[in-house]
Amino acid sequence: MFLRCATRTLDLSEPIVMGVLNVTPDSFSDAGQFLDPERAIEHGLRMVEAGAGFIDVGGESTRPGAAMVPEEEELRRVVPVIEALVRRVDVPISVDTSKPRVMRAAVEAGAELINDIYALRLPGALEAARDSGAAVCLMHMQGEPRTMQIEPRYDDVVAEVRDFLNDRVAVCLEAGLQLDRLVVDPVIGFGKRLQHNLALLAALPTLGAHGVPVLVGVSRKSMFKDLLGRPVDERLPGALAVATASVLAGARIVRTHDVRETLDAVKVAAALKRSGYRMATNGDFSVA
Fold it and tell me: Which residues are annotated as catalytic?
């Protein structure tokens, strides 16, 4: 399986780890820690050194209840960091944004993947992404960040998320985006309760719309507060368990704040999978 980015084609036959770099004052897990560009760049370099195969730069928090960031401010936050990282590392940089102008500016600065929580539904986003040459991650969210965790409801969360992702892939293909530029992400925790998150993780092998790669990100998310009663800084073991299960279920990209530890889990899971350890359709694990 391959993913065609702006200047390179990535081989996803082995899963890779995407490091999260929030250049924001209000992200849920590292609020303000990397708002300073120099600190953000240094953190990005450390994640690459730890083995990240992608660095995902975001200038607008999408945590539940987050307010929108003006376009100019988002540009001011992300573009210098992307430009600096592109000059200093040999892994692709992605940009976490929904705004067409930010997409274009980020790709001009060297970003090679666009992570869009609105899945290119905002006016002009589809055209901006198509024309950029970058890969695109189509993400699922019920509602929008300010309201998504207020009473999220589904009749069948797996079917609804799968249908949404299939539909967005089809829209992209019709608009001229090639299949090998697309990734899908069910987005654990965005407009979803614990039972919805668990159902989506159990159904992960069915969520790769049109056979495109699946990205999973659960790093430090509130599902571990619900499951384990853990605060943000004690959720890594739970996230590693989900990362392992996700790779065994077919995920190709694992998005995380904790690159070194997650990469170890991903490597072990990938080795098990190569050895014939697989998840049966009923959710049980077995050896082929």
Answer: 221, 255
Three-state secondary structure string covering the chain: CEEECCCCEEECCCCEEEEEEECCCCCCCCCCCCCCHHHHHHHHHHHHHCCCCEEEEECCCCCCCCCCCCHHHHHHHHHHHHHHHHHHCCCCEEEECCCHHHHHHHHHHCCCEEEECCCCCCCCHHHHHHHHCCEEEEECCCCCCCCCCCCCCCCCHHHHHHHHHHHHHHHHHHHCCCHHHEEEECCCCCCCCHHHHHHHHHCHHHCCHHHCCEEEECCCCCHHHHHHCCCHHHCHHHHHHHHHHHHHCCCCEEEECCHHHHHHHHHHHHHHHHCCEEECCCCCEEEC
Total tally of structural domains belonging to the chain? 1
pLDDT at 288: 47
Domain of residue 45: give its range: 2-287
pLDDT for the residue numbered 287: 47
Per-residue pLDDT tens for 47-85?
999 999 999 999 987 766 667 889 999 999 999 999 999
CATH number of 127's domain: 3.20.20.20
Calculate what percentage of the chain has a pLDDT beyond 90: 77
Given pLDDT bands bounded at 50, 70 and 90, which one contains residue 33? low
